[in-house]
């Protein structure tokens, strides 16, 4: 699972050839969450509300890059790194 970004202790990653809908995974502390890229809704999992807010803020800024990375990973290609939340 390639890491595509890391900020404030949150790790953002995508799996190669993952199932639809297009989504990414975030890990923080002991929690994990999968978030749909288009709607930014939680597909599964749980992380703290504070961390989730940061992840959603970041994903809203980089939605196009996330969708491009989804296409890369669907074709078993390494996704690009995305800037962290600042």
Give an overview of the whole structure:
The chain has 86 residues and is α+β, with helices and mostly antiparallel strands. It has one domain. It contains 2 helices and 5 strands. The chain has helices at 49-61, 63-74, and strands at 3-7, 10-13, 23-28, 31-36, 42-46. The chain has a 5-stranded antiparallel sheet with strand order 1-2-3-4-5. It is globular and about 35 Å long. The mean pLDDT is 95.
Give the arrangement of secondary structure elements:
Blueprint: E1 3-7, E2 10-13, E3 23-28, E4 31-36, E5 42-46, H1 49-61, H2 63-74
Antiparallel strand pairs: 1-2, 2-3, 3-4, 4-5
Compose a concise summary of this entry.
The protein is an alpha+beta fold and 86 residues long. The chain is built from two helices and five strands.
List its traits.
2 helices, five-stranded antiparallel sheet, 86 residues, alpha+beta
For the largest beta sheet, what order do the strands appear in spatially? 1-2-3-4-5
Q: Give the total of beta strands.
A: 5
SS-based structural class?
Answer: alpha+beta
Report the biggest beta sheet as strand number plus sense, adding barrel if it closes. 5 strands, antiparallel
The coarse overall form would be globular
Task: Spell out the helices and strands N to C.
Answer: EEEEEHH
Q: How much is the average pLDDT?
A: 95
Low-confidence stretches: none
Q: What's the tally of helices?
A: 2
């Amino acid at each position: 699972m390639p890491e595509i970004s890391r900020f404030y202790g949150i790790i953002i990653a995508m799996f190669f050839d993952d199932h639809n809908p297009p989504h990414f995974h975030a890990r923080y502390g002991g929690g994990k969450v999968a978030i749909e890229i288009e709607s930014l809704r939680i597909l599964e999992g749980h992380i703290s509300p504070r961390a989730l807010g940061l992840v959603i803020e970041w994903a809203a800024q980089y939605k196009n890059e996330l969708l491009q990375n989804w296409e890369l990973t669907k074709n078993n290609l390494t996704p690009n790194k995305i800037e962290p939340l600042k």
